[in-house]
From TrEMBL, chains A, B:
<dbReference type="InterPro" id="IPR000843">
    <property type="entry name" value="HTH_LacI"/>
</dbReference>
<dbReference type="InterPro" id="IPR010982">
    <property type="entry name" value="Lambda_DNA-bd_dom_sf"/>
</dbReference>
<dbReference type="GO" id="GO:0003700">
    <property type="term" value="F:DNA-binding transcription factor activity"/>
</dbReference>
<dbReference type="GO" id="GO:0000976">
    <property type="term" value="F:transcription cis-regulatory region binding"/>
</dbReference>
<dbReference type="Pfam" id="PF00532">
    <property type="entry name" value="Peripla_BP_1"/>
</dbReference>
<keyword id="KW-0805">Transcription regulation</keyword>
<keyword id="KW-0238">DNA-binding</keyword>
<protein>
    <submittedName>
        <fullName>LacI family transcriptional regulator</fullName>
    </submittedName>
</protein>
<dbReference type="InterPro" id="IPR001761">
    <property type="entry name" value="Peripla_BP/Lac1_sug-bd_dom"/>
</dbReference>
<feature type="domain" description="HTH lacI-type">
    <location>
        <begin position="5"/>
        <end position="59"/>
    </location>
</feature>
<dbReference type="Pfam" id="PF00356">
    <property type="entry name" value="LacI"/>
</dbReference>
<dbReference type="InterPro" id="IPR028082">
    <property type="entry name" value="Peripla_BP_I"/>
</dbReference>
<keyword id="KW-0804">Transcription</keyword>
Length: 346, 346
């Protein structure tokens, strides 16, 4: 006797399709009572054990959630996913992933695939290019629980988990000022994304708080890439008065800036300080080590799953309207050699 | 009139559940003819456009595939997934991902989730710990097309795509010999995984071909981690005759070795040459740049999808039995500073 008898085995024994067996076991109205009886009899004989998925089909719950991330290659999102998985596993949920590759079209396809797959809820971080939110509103209309994390949109009434980007950028800029830098440039990200807008605002606020001027020509509009870091440095070096430090909107941009500076033999941190954002893994391995702002990604993933769980399995004690729910995590500074003009780097 | 009418809109208009509407549109036997007629009428009135997913449900195809990877944080797998996505997109398939996190239990859950989600096929790379293949054999028994890539098992009769690991390791070791290194240590990976076994064999063969002895104490059994690279260096340095070069089974192990060597002020490549395997992104950003063997991950992803497509949509001209199908890609050497004792690094 096979201890791992499957639906396929039962189907073979009865000369019907596996789909028929599955439907019969789930008491599907399209299957005759006669067939159901026969299937149950063979299932018993073969000691077939229904798996959790089969029983959750019956309950109308799949215990699967879908997670949309811009790219798994960005370490930050990988860490968020680990946080989601850790929490989801505790509550018996399986996590399916989908990469939008920063393309709104792919993002829409991912949402459709998750709906088709029958997930109980969706966690999503927006692609850089997403400006039409129809596919997310569709989820909401279909009552599929949805929570945004990191890259969110505030105007859709969807619960979200973010890090305090303003505060992170403020801390980074303040640190550069504390190290004696006085002309601090910023390489910005796309301004239709709130996280990048908030970082620019935090940079400006820190300058103002120290009585330093905010100069538009020291703000370079990048697109969150190694290449835009390089372009920004070329722009900064052509200015009559070049900056003595750079706060980059994220670490890959900072990496590009560092590569360009190194090629031009400009000493980091002596001649130019650099701070990034996101605390990507490579930052501690490059030379000099890259100062950055950690966004507590694993914690972000856990909080996002907890919000989603409240929507998927509402408990009576939940009194706060989820439409207004937002979790904000505190950023953590990791200052290394790239900004240590006063020798305080780790 | 709403140009984006959904199933939910139709359900609302008829005061039935969205599930009923969906089933009615898919001509489900459990829905009465009367309801079907009513649904179709409202759908027409609202100019409801069925999406691809709805029509594929009807055809019994989801046009989704599932991809099991050990970890999205390993850049190599991220690149393979990009290759899969590029090809899948061309053929109208959507790609769902699942991370096993190297745990066989998670891997099994992922397979179950993909089956439950109704994917048309599965691509998988084995977790380090997987020694029981029951969940993969289940897929095969259920006639769900399955192709292995990179971390494969040869004994299950499942088509696969691999890089020529033996040749890659042979090339890496030969290169170190060519740079004048004479006592070359190897930090190995788990030997129940064929790829790591093949790399060890390639290392030995290259030594033998150059008339160098294979010494067991120069082979350190690691577990594919930064930490095992560090441990291996500590082991090597305690030997009466320490090695003058290290060929690590993969780049994170090599990174750990380099970190330990640097902390002990041992010059790379002058006193100790280092070569890794996989050409992870960080390798070109660290100092010195890490020599490595590229596995053509994007190409691997494309070939894996093509094999799967042949199984999902068999064409008449396919004459080769897929059970025996295996695609082997050639490794490409990227030699940088970490092994350039003769000054030939890039």
């Amino acid at each position: 006797m096979n201890p791992r008898a499957t639906i396929a085995d039962i189907a073979k024994a009865l000369n019907v399709t596996p789909a028929t067996v599955s439907r019969a076991l789930n008491d599907h109205p399209g299957i005759s009572q006669e067939t159901k009886k026969a299937v149950r009899k063979v299932a018993e004989k073969l000691q077939y054990k229904r798996n959790k998925i089969a029983s959750s089909l019956r309950s109308g719950r799949s215990h699967m959630i879908g997670v949309i991330i811009p790219s798994a290659a960005i370490n930050f999102f990988g860490e968020v996913v680990h946080g989601i998985e850790a929490m989801a596993n505790t509550y018996g949920y399986t996590v399916l992933l989908y990469q939008s590759n920063e393309l709104p079209d792919y993002e829409r396809k991912g949402i459709e695939a998750f709906v088709s797959a029958g997930v109980d809820g969706v966690l999503a971080s927006l692609a850089k290019g997403t400006v039409d939110f129809g596919h997310y509103l569709d989820l909401k209309r279909h009552n599929v629980p949805l929570v945004f994390f990191d890259r969110v949109n505030d105007e859709l009434g969807i619960p979200s988990v973010v890090v305090d980007d303003f505060r992170g950028a403020y801390t980074a800029t303040e640190h550069l000022i504390g190290q004696g830098y006085r002309r601090i440039g910023h390489i910005a990200g796309q301004q239709h994304l709130k996280i990048f807008k908030d970082r620019l605002a935090g940079y400006k606020a820190a300058l103002e708080a120290s009585g330093l001027p905010v100069e538009e020509k020291l703000i370079y509009q990048g697109d969150v890439s190694i290449e835009s870091g390089r372009r920004a440095v070329r722009h900064f070096l052509e200015l009559p008065e070049r900056p003595d430090a750079i706060f980059a909107v994220e670490d890959y941009t900072a990496l590009g800036a560092m590569k360009e500076l190194k090629e031009r033999k400009i000493q980091i941190p002596e001649e130019m300080g650099v701070v990034g954002f996101a605390n990507e893994v490579f930052g501690e391995h490059i030379s000099p080590g890259l100062s950055s702002i950690d966004q507590q990604p694993a914690q972000m993933g856990k909080e996002a799953f907890k919000l989603l769980l409240e929507m998927m399995e509402p408990r009576k004690e939940a009194v706060v309207a989820l439409d207004q729910k937002r979790v904000t995590l505190a950023p953590i500074a990791f200052f290394r050699q790239s900004s240590a003009r006063n020798g305080e780097g780790a």
